[in-house]
Structure formats: C-alpha cells, structure tokens
C-alpha cells in the first residue's frame, strides 16, 4: 500500500519531467499502466496533449509558488474525462531532496457529470473551424471517410466533392489588412452554408480554400451547384475604408460514382488531390472557372499547374494583338475596337490568353506587357487613315507604373491627335479595390485627351456613387447583367434606369459578349449605345492592311 492511498482522490507523485514516481490505488485503477519509480510512465503518455501542456504550465507555477490549483477539465489520450480540476504541490523527494510534484485530481462523480455538457462542446469544437464556423479539416476527412465506406457497402449513391480556391484573395489582406480578409472568408463561408445546406458538408480546409461534399445524382447537377455557388459569391461585397472588395473563386469538382468507388482504392487524400488539380486548372485559365474531373486512379489530370510567367519563358516577340470590333447599335457602324492580347501560334500550347494575363499579373510582369501593348497600338494608329478609336484594358500594376505614364506623356505630346483615338479601360473590380489610384490615373489620361472606360461594370454602389466625379466616357457592362435582368421585368427596369442615369451624366454604355441576335435585341430595348461580341464581330489579327 502506498502512502498516497490515504488521499481520497486520484493522486500521483511525479518528477519534473512528469514521470510517475508513485501513485495511489485510485490513480492506478484509472491508469493501470502508470507504474512507479524507474518504470513509471510519463504523464505525456497518459494525458491528452492539451492536458499535458496544462500540467507543464502548472508545474512551472508550482515551482515558483509551491502550490498551484488548475481549474478546467483534464482529458486522457482517448479524450475521456479524468477530472474537472487538478491540485499541484511541490514537495521534496528522495535522499537528494529533489523537487517532485504531488498531483491530486478532483474526481467526484457529481462534478464529472456537471462537466458532461462542456466535454461534448469541446468535442464538437474540435471539428469546427474557429473563424468561419464551418467544419474543419479533421471533420472533413472524417466525413469523407464515412462517405466512402457508405458508398462501398451500397448505402450511399454518387458523391460530388467541390474544391474552392478564392481568386486574388491575397489582395484583400494586402490592401485592407487581415481583419478584412477574415471578414471576407466569413462571407464566403455563409455562401457555402446556403448552397450546401444542413444535409451536406461545407468545410474550410485552411487559408482561402474550402471544400463541399454533397450527394448528387448526376454530373450535370454537380455543375449546377458549382455555378450556383459562384453566382452567390459574385454578389458579395466588402467595404473597408474607401475600398470595396468583391470576390470569386475557381472550383474543381471530383465526381465519385458509387459503382467505381466500391472497387477503387479511394481515400480522402487522393480524392481531394484530384479535386484540387481540377481547381488549379481553373486558376491556370485565369480564375473564376469551374472544372470537372471524374475520379480515376489511372489517369492524372494533365498540365494543371498554373504556368509560371517569367520574361525568359514568354518574351514580347511571342505576343500578338487582335482587335474585336465595337459597333453602334443604332447604325451598326463600327465605332472602334478593343485590343486583345494573344500568343503567336507556336506558343499557343503554353497557356491560354486568359491564363497568360492571370499569370503575368501574379508575377508582377503585367505592367511591362501593358507598356508594350500601348506602344504597339500607338505605332499602328499613328499611320492609320481610319477614324475609329481603340480600347486597351490596363492592369492594376500599370496604373502605378511611372514608365507607362512617361510613355503616354511622351508619345501623346508629340502626336496629340492620337489621344482621342485611344480609350484606356480600368476594370470595376480594380476600381473598387484601389479607388484613389484609379481616379488619379483616369484624371491623368483624361488631361492628355484620351477616352476612358470602366470595364465589367456591374453597378456596385461605390462606383455608381462616384460616376459624377469620375467623368469617364464609357462604361462596359458586365455580361452577367444580361442573365441577371433578361428574364426578370423588375430587374430589367432597374438596369434600364441605371443606363439612363449614365446617359444623363454624359456616359455612353457598351454591352459585352453579345453572341446572338436575341441578346443584341435585348440591349437595344435598354437603349445601350454600342455592343461587342462574337455575334457583332470576332477578334482578328491586328494591325493589318485594313488600318
């Protein structure tokens, strides 16, 4: 019998390292493997990691003050309750009077029962993402394992795994701080909760990556769910000071067929890996894309890594320009053209034009591309006999590029008539994120005599509010506005009034991505001034002999 047996609670004597030197019968009954003396087990082998760390902190406090009461539930390595509190007392032990610690665990049944609700909450919190309230990585892997087991025994039908990676999320953190970034993540999480509902699972994998699991009967329905999620995210907006942020993301779908999974060596890791690769394909295409991948262990998704843009990989000589006509809706005459960046044919397999631009922006090389584009356009229109104008969309990096400003100032001061034939475009998304920078640039090029335009205009209030001060010549409507309003009379009326308000301010309106006669007719009913798109005219190599 140990001297510690006179103590009514579970008690143990441990050294500074947490090794059990002696235990009483109550403690031994709970931990028969604890032992004692030279063969004693360490507390780190008996307690959960968090409880072990709490004991370490308590022992340090007891070293300084001789005694420490530690409140709060302590758990064993299996997550079961040991005690609701712990008393730690420093004592001298052995002939050398080495420091040891007497541990007394409070263990009344009543107290443990009182803590049962708290323990259940702890277990639930272990599976919840602290920031967003979604399931966390641990819960995701556990649920995916469960789904695979149910599919193998025939209880579950086909399952779709949605991997969402936000586009340009880093800019929110960089421009507005991590608090704004956290708020945006919570807004995205709310979108996932709304789309996936209570009978499916939405999880935050970490950072700006999310995963959704849902039983769906067909691949077409999985695609519809992904599109629904993107549509919800497009309506998100976050105001931070003078900045306004929107967000979207690329979604990779890994579709798991029940009859295939029943025989395949599928596990959460390789399933998420394939969904992630499908997502990366969308990132490589420029973002805001949905890509589909049926689960197949034998087939890898090819070339899905986003291309790394480096000047030595794709030089300016590898680039070419195309022009897409912009027509007046009233007369169908060509007013101007939008200049588009393309790769020369031998380089087309490297990446798509959209991926080229996205990769160049990520690597900070886009402003150099913009300078080259402007130089080429100014060279071409300086010898052109036509009176049409040419629109060039500029990246955020170009707006702060002093070399680009010097180029414009130098070229247009020597040939001032060229300015009126140049329309410089800034996307609404960039304006929302850095309004002061965009306004300074628009003012600069307007003073040079250039036309100006807000591209992909979706009617966000911070831009509407400043239209009177911006004094832009054109706004190009976001193509999504057509889908938004064409089938809804009230929304069509709102859009018509917004276009009328732009006209009242002297701003003309262009419809983009017009691909069929009904779309053209729809925009005509709203009194839009001009249109561009494949129905109006396809992009052609430029410049050519038809200058």
UniProtKB/TrEMBL annotation:
Record-linked SMART domains: EAL, GGDEF
Domain EAL, first and last residues per copy: 303-547
Short name of any one Pfam family annotated for the protein: EAL
PROSITE patterns linked to this entry: EAL (PS50883), GGDEF (PS50887)
Record-annotated GGDEF domain positions: 157-295
NCBIfam families per the UniProt record, alphabetical: GGDEF (TIGR00254)
Official protein name in the record: EAL domain-containing protein
Organism this protein belongs to: Roseibium polysiphoniae
């Amino acid at each position: 019998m140990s001297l510690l047996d006179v103590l009514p609670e579970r008690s143990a004597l441990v050294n500074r390292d947490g090794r059990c030197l002696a235990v009483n019968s109550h403690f031994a009954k709970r931990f028969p493997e604890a032992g004692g003396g030279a063969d004693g087990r360490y507390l780190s082998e008996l307690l959960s990691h968090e409880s072990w760390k709490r004991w370490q902190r308590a022992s340090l406090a007891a070293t300084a003050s001789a005694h420490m009461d530690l409140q709060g539930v302590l758990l064993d390595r299996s997550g079961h309750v040991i005690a609701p509190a712990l008393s730690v007392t420093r004592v001298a032990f052995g002939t050398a009077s080495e420091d040891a610690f007497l541990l007394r665990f409070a263990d009344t049944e009543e107290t443990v029962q009182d803590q049962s609700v708290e323990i259940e909450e702890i277990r639930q919190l272990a599976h919840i993402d602290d920031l967003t309230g979604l399931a966390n990585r641990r819960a995701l892997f556990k649920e995916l394992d469960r789904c695979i087991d149910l599919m193998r025994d025939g209880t579950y039908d086909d399952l779709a795994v949605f991997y969402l990676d936000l586009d340009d999320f880093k800019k929110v953190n960089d421009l507005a701080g991590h608090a704004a970034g956290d708020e945006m993540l919570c807004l995205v999480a709310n979108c996932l909760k709304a789309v996936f509902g209570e009978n499916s699972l939405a999880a935050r994998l970490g950072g700006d990556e999310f995963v959704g699991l849902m039983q769906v009967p067909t691949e077409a329905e999985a695609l519809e769910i992904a599109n629904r999620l993107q549509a919800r995210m497009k309506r998100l907006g976050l105001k931070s000071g003078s900045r306004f942020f929107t967000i979207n993301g690329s979604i990779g779908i890994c579709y798991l067929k029940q009859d295939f999974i029943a025989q395949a060596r599928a596990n959460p890791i390789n399933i998420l890996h394939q969904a992630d690769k499908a997502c990366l394909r969308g990132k490589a295409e420029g973002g805001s894309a949905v890509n589909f991948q049926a689960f197949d262990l034998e087939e890898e998704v090819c070339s899905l890594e986003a291309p790394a843009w480096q000047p030595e990989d794709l030089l300016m000589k590898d680039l070419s320009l195309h022009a897409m006509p912009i027509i007046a809706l009233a007369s169908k005459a060509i007013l101007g053209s939008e200049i588009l960046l393309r790769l020369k044919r031998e380089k087309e397999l490297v990446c798509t034009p959209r991926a080229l631009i996205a990769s160049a922006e990520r690597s900070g090389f886009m402003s150099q591309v913009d300078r080259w584009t402007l130089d080429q356009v100014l060279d071409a229109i300086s010898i052109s006999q036509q009176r049409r104008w040419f629109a060039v969309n500029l990246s955020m990096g170009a707006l702060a590029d002093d070399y680009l400003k010097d180029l414009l100032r130098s070229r247009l001061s020597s040939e001032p008539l060229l300015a009126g034939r140049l329309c410089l475009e800034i996307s609404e998304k960039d304006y929302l994120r850095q309004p002061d920078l965009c306004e300074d640039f628009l003012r600069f090029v307007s003073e040079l005599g250039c036309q100006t335009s807000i591209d992909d205009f979706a009617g966000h209030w911070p831009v509407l509010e400043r239209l009177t001060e911006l004094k832009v010549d054109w706004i190009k409507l976001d193509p999504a506005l057509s889908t938004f309003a064409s089938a809804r009379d009230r929304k069509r009326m709102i859009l018509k009034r917004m276009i009328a308000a732009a006209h009242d301010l002297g701003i003309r309106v262009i419809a983009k991505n017009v691909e069929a006669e009904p779309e053209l007719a729809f925009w005509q009913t709203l009194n839009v001034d001009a249109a561009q798109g494949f129905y109006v005219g396809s992009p052609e190599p430029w410049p050519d002999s038809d200058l």
